[in-house]
Amino acid sequence: MSKIRLLIDEDAMDHRFVASLRARGLDVTTVGELSRTGLSDEEQLAISTEQQRVFYTFNVGDFCQLHSVYMTENRNHSGIIISTQDYSVGEQMRRVLKLMTTKSAKDMENQLVFFKRLF
């Protein structure tokens, strides 16, 4: 089972969150580390797909719509996780870790996962 690799959106790239995930051995990068901040949501999702990374964001409206467009147009993406800013860094990390124990990178393809509804 291939492990999920993450690309963290600029709205969610809290250094404590990223460091906590890395400390647990997860493959995580951010749009900031890739020097890709300020790009459109579609460009960000394309980058995550090219790199075979699941996209992690707080941007509910835009990424729900983008996911719908992809599905309507029979386009593929590596997966999208939408969380809420209301969760602490620790809670976000726990939810990512739990997801990673139940889903593979293949399972996440073309999936839109809401943390507020997942657990």
UniProtKB/TrEMBL annotation:
Residue stretches making up the DUF5615 domain: 5-115
Protein name: DUF5615 domain-containing protein
Organism listed in the record: Nostoc piscinale CENA21
